[in-house]
Task: structure prediction
Amino acid sequence: MSILDKPWMAERSAIDNAVSGGSLNFPKARVALIFLMAVITVLFMLFSVAYKMRMELADWRALADPSVLWINTGFLILSSVAMQWAVSSARKGKAENVKLGMALGGAFALAFLIGQYMAWLQLRAAGFYAAGNPANAFFYLITAMHGLHMLGGLVAWTRSTARLWRGNDVADVKLGVELCATYWHFLLVVWLGLFAMLIST
Amino acid sequence: MAIVIVLVLMAVGSVLFHIWTPWWFTEVASNWGAIDELIVFTFAITGFVFVAVVLFTAYAIYKFRYKEDRRADYEPENKKLEFWLTVVTAIGVMALLAPGLAVWADFVTVPEGAEEFEVVGEQWNWTFRFPGADGKLGTADVANITYDNPFGMNADDPNGQDDVLIEDYEVHLPIGSPIKVLLRSKDVLHDFWVPQFRAKMDLVPGLESHFWFTPTREGTFDLLCAELCGVGHYTMRGKVTIESEEAFKAWLAAYPTYAETVPAPSDTGGGAASGQ
Amino acid sequence: MVYVPPQEVEDVHLHDPDTFMTKYIWSQDHKVIAVQYSLTAIAVGLVALVLSLMMRLQLGWPGVFDFIDPESYYQFVTMHGMIMVIYLLTALFLGGFGNYLIPLMLGARDMVFPFLNMLSYWVYLLSVIVLMSSYFVPGGPTGAGWTLYPPQAILQGTPGADWGIVTMLASLALFIVAFTMGGLNYVTTVLQARTRGMTLMRMPLSIWGIFVATILGLLAFPALLVSAVMLLLDKLVGTSFFMPAIVSMGEQLDYSGGSPILFQHLFWFFGHPEVYIVALPAFGLVSDLLSTHARKNIFGYRMMVWAIVAIGGLSFVVWAHHMYVSGMNPYFGFFFATTTLIIAVPTALKVYNWTLTLWRGNIRLNVPMLFAIGFIVTFTNGGLTGLFLGNVIVDIPLSDTYFVVAHFHMVMGVSPIMVVFGSIYHWYPKVTGRMLDDRLGRFHFWVTFLGTYAIYFPMHYLGFIGVPRRYYAYEDFDFIPESAITLNENISIAALVVGAVQLVFLYNLVISYRRGKLAGSNPWEATTLEWQTPQTPPAHGNWGDTLPVVYRWAYDYSVPGAAKDFLPQNQPPSDDAPVQEEDNLGFDSTDPASGGGTREDA
Result:
């Protein structure tokens, strides 16, 4: 099936009549997640473009990136790994491991967010205020936007984890766990891109 | 069937309106008369298409109005017709674009040796600066602006000492030679526009924009702001007078240079006149 | 009729309403949400209509109405523009028509995420409330123009620079959240919840238009969010994303180094696709109106689909044609003028195909058809003036004049509204089970169509004189003749008449709900699935026990050899209802001489 088809033709008709089900071979929630990730990608791309364009102007003064960012990045990677472990456990039907993986994933994500907040406190203590220089302002803005998306992920994570703890069958929660993991990996990749941009300038 | 008659009247009426309209361009006073010609040309092509589409639609509605005993054709597509329509449309579009880009190339290429002068906009006044005897404008920055230094002149720049500062809503320019207009704003976006010159460009705070034109007709013209700049936008007015080189020089000589304004904080002659 | 069990398509968990509150207020039924979206959009649109009439009062009779001072005039300008573009047209086409038609036209029971859909409406309503709260904060709404350009938008000297701009930006952020929730829903439903046999190329063009417009919205609104957030920070925190060093009213401000042009790039990267977020659904809906009421398949269906997709793609690379005089690098002009004029080609093809759909049709001149024809005229007019403004050098004298005002009102004000009205007359019978009154509808059409043309056609010529837009008053201009002031007065009279006639439309909507003629399930004898529901208005779940099965494309009108002049999409092939065997039955291939002389190819 393609946009070159002539849908009014009899030969085409016989083929089309048999078509059923979605265009993409995914559950509908995954399709929505794919589009959501596309939207978020555009959002952060635009922030990055704005960052690069603003950087070209004369008053840009790079800030001293807090070292805690490296630790936070480590937390985020661990979080992603834990989520992935939960997914593979869910596929094997090991309920206890799924619980543990989800719990660790959430905990590391929380640690990441707390670490990001620490980075803000460090910057403030060092006198890098948002209004002082666009480099500072972009740092706060971009980390805040990324953190907000992480928080949104934690809302979905809470729903899936709560269902696990209420004793739902692993098969019922499997999709939720998989989607959380996908989103976690996505936010990790976004963060690595943003982090690279922030420390390189 | 009223719609058929109305569509025909609309097509014909629009053309007649266009022919008889009392509302048309002001007489051009710069070298950008080519833009007027392009607009007339664009009108010819788009007007033809508009009339053709409307008349074709009217005719189709009339000829194929509903009849109980008739069937519409079954016609999912017609490759040949669609192909030729695409080709003809593409040719029409290129015919509009090519001359447009050619004139644009002129517009973005400032001629060598064009005389420079600067327009500085603020809410809701125009002021102007000429380079003075050395032919060079001194550097200036918004950060330098004070009550005594409304242009933000850089006091250390030798090029700026002889710059002529015009705190007045009217500016004079010499006829016949190309002029590069440099544009600066102290606060928000403005847009320097004299309808008779056809050209316009925004004044953007934080950077210097420019455009060029050659005045071709003597007279005094309305200068207005064409970019929304706050509640006084509609009052941000000025005048541009085009005159002979000699008259222009005489007019310019009456205004103070930057150096003359510095030692004496009290006003030296330009006056703090404003648009409104 | 053959049915398949609903298990064929992933089942939707329906939220069955049992109380008044869950049925009409906290409803998760796409049809109710569609009506909620539509009524809210129309209500806020009426506010914007009144604002435009206030502007016309000032322009037609300057100084006569002394309650209109410059501050409030600029507030009218801003709120009118923003409401019409975002809160009326975007919300109505996607939240209203999209919500109603996507599941019904595709044979689905509901949107795939009904709860998210409900949430989308309520966040939208919240954004409208926040927007309207602008009128009750100190200083009133922002008067920065709908483009909200900094530095002006957040500086003293602009009305509402303290509070109004903040409520505006907050409201936009909420709207974007609402739109994203709705948009994910529409896209996923179109891709994953179509019934058996409903391939993408069998979808009605309405769905294609709404589908592509939704994708545009999902990818373009982030740019508005980015610019809104950064502008808000410049305003509230004192950052300098867009704010350079400024002396405002003689006082040095604490900003430095920012770029106002950066904002413009971000804004128009959203703003131009936004034009097509409004236009593409209109293109789709009007295609279906024309085809149904001309009793003929849409001409060049595949070309229409390709054109929608091509226009959608190109709309992301033309944004800076709004910025030819912005002081950006002038060499960008070459690129953006070229892309802009390229986009004219698929757009022109759509116009040809609409008129060719009428050719050799069997045209029923009912009210939806009249509006559809009105759309062809106004859209052609507005589209062609786009060729002036897109062609960079021609734009230079015309930008920021009334030519621009006339152009964009014709192309994305009047013509989408023509489609909105036509579509409401067309689908109202399905939504309520009753027809709208025909005589009131015709009256409404004639006054609206002729009135809007009388408003906007002469307005182009004010632009040629050079009359600048966004001016509160035009005093003592040498270059504006006295007659132009008279023209403004006449335009204002036409605007007041057109505005008043919309009350007839509202009266029709209300009165027909109870007293309109009963419609039956398929009053227009249309082929698409929404007209084949077992009940009218469709019940919760839309299709009773079993989903419909689709056997043909959406445009089997006047099929040769068929008993009736329309074959519903769920009608299986039979002797009375054949499926086309041969290719190219077009008139030109059999009879090249006919119709050749009057074609609009130029």
Chain A has six helices and no strands. The mean pLDDT of chain A is 92. The two ends of chain A are 47 Å apart (CA to CA). Chain A has one domain: 30-199.
